[in-house]
């Protein structure tokens, strides 16, 4: 009788254990196969597509009796999401100095952003609930490090083949009237660089595979630390040498991008990491920073890179537009400080006259997007004080909660979030920068769960 009784008991137990596991492929598939998604025309659309199976598996595991953990400080993020939804009520408002438009015309862009915020929320919870057996932290760091290598490769492609572009399979499937729209084209049409005139004459600025040069620069800063941590965790001297070579080569597209925000972000990252290591008693970091700084200075003097940097610093063509948009964002926030306007708006004309607008011959002359020149300005303008406090509160709480994590992974992850705080003054976070931010948060969270936040 004992043997007979054990058979039905063993079967359900085996199925229950199987149903509780979370596979790594949704997270690993997004990162490892991102070049494929980009080439297919999926790009950032892969995040909501993968969010569906991730959400299903989270619900299935919860139904199987395994607790579902939420990240520390999640209440702040919930406040932000609620603010995003509530602010939709103000979509019909036309703030002073902006183009009048129906709320229904603005709704698709708002729905897109909300879907991305929700998809990345699922990514955060899913990545944080994975165990070491399912997807180890070191493997996740290696995947993120690989994304930095991909960023550098895309930057080099943008430099040598700035006009490279092609029609993706997804783009072919869309009706002509849909795929010709600028916003849709930016999502499904792969291209290597943005061609802009910033220092005299049109030049390619690296964008692949992230769609925009500013997004490329933002991701460069967010991912650099993970590549170094992944390489130094390896026992292979060859991999460490390749990592150093990758860092050295990355300077070329970083400078060619003419991206001042990227240059500032790298400075913030280096300063943060140096301070963390000095406070931990690892004074050798000072010598390492000095040597790296000396090598960079020598490269600037001995190559045309220094001339490129100086030319960009001498030509701040975007300064006036940025100041104009910041002023408009602040004015809008003052007029609707609690919930904002639910989304961005386009200005009437340009900064010098309301009669000057965007045209085929001058795309940057007017009708600028208020809230499109930095995440902080978009938060204030679109979602008011409530949304801004929720967003900043979540990541700020994470930095404070996990401040004692002195492990290489912890320093790289917190460094990425710190860098994002400086970047939000001139970069918008959706979609891939915010994805890397939530994965950095998940790594800090899992370090804390595993008890390695003091190593």
UniProtKB/TrEMBL annotation:
Keyword annotations: Membrane, Transmembrane, Transmembrane helix
InterPro entries, per the entry: WaaL-like (IPR051533)
Keyword Plastid among UniProt keywords: no
PANTHER family hit by this protein: LIPOPOLYSACCHARIDE BIOSYNTHESIS PROTEIN PA4999-RELATED (PTHR37422:SF13), TEICHURONIC ACID BIOSYNTHESIS PROTEIN TUAE (PTHR37422)
Name of the protein in its database record: O-antigen ligase-like membrane protein
Transmembrane parts of this sequence: 36-58, 70-90, 110-128, 140-164, 216-234, 241-256, 262-279, 284-305, 376-397, 433-449
Presence of keyword Transmembrane: yes
Top-level taxon: Bacteria
Native species: Actinoplanes lutulentus
């Amino acid at each position: 009788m004992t043997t007979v009784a054990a058979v039905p008991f063993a079967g359900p137990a085996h199925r229950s254990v199987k149903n509780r596991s979370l596979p790594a492929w949704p997270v690993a598939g997004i990162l490892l196969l991102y070049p494929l998604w980009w080439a297919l025309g999926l790009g950032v659309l892969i995040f909501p597509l993968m969010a569906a199976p991730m959400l299903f598996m989270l619900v299935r595991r919860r139904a199987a009796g395994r607790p579902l953990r939420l990240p520390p400080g999640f209440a702040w993020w919930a406040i932000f999401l609620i603010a995003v939804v509530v602010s939709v009520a103000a979509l019909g408002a036309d703030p002073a100095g902006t183009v009048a438009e129906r709320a229904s015309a603005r709704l698709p862009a708002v729905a897109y952003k909300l879907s991305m915020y929700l998809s990345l929320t699922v990514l955060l919870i899913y990545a944080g609930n994975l165990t070491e057996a399912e997807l180890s932290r070191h493997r996740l760091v290696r995947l993120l490090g690989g994304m930095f290598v991909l960023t550098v490769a895309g930057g080099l492609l943008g430099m040598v083949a700035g006009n490279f572009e092609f029609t993706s399979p997804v783009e072919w499937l869309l009706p002509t009237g849909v795929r010709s729209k600028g916003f849709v084209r930016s999502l499904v049409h792969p291209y290597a660089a943005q061609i802009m005139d910033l220092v005299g004459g049109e030049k390619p600025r690296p964008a692949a595979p992230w769609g925009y040069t500013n997004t490329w620069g933002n991701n460069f800063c967010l991912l650099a630390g993970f590549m170094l941590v992944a390489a130094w965790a390896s026992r292979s001297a060859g991999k460490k040498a390749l990592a150093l070579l990758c860092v050295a080569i990355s300077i070329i597209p970083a400078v060619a991008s003419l991206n001042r925000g990227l240059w500032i972000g790298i400075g913030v990252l280096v300063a943060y990491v140096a301070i963390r290591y000095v406070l931990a008693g690892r004074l050798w970091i000072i010598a390492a920073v000095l040597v790296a700084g000396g090598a960079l200075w020598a490269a600037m003097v001995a190559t045309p890179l220094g001339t490129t940097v100086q030319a960009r610093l001498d030509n701040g063509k975007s300064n006036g537009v940025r100041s104009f948009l910041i002023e408009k964002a602040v004015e809008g926030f003052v007029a609707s400080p609690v919930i904002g306007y639910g989304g961005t708006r386009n200005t009437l004309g340009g900064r010098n006259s309301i009669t000057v607008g965007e045209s085929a011959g001058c795309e940057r002359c007017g009708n600028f997007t208020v809230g499109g020149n930095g995440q902080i300005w978009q938060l204030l303008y679109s979602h008011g004080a409530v949304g801004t406090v929720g967003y900043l509160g979540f990541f700020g709480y994470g930095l404070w909660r996990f401040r004692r994590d002195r492990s290489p992974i912890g320093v790289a992850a917190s460094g990425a979030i710190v860098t994002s705080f400086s970047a939000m003054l001139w970069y918008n976070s959706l979609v891939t920068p915010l994805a890397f931010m939530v994965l950095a948060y998940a790594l800090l969270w899992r370090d804390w769960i595993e008890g390695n936040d003091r190593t």
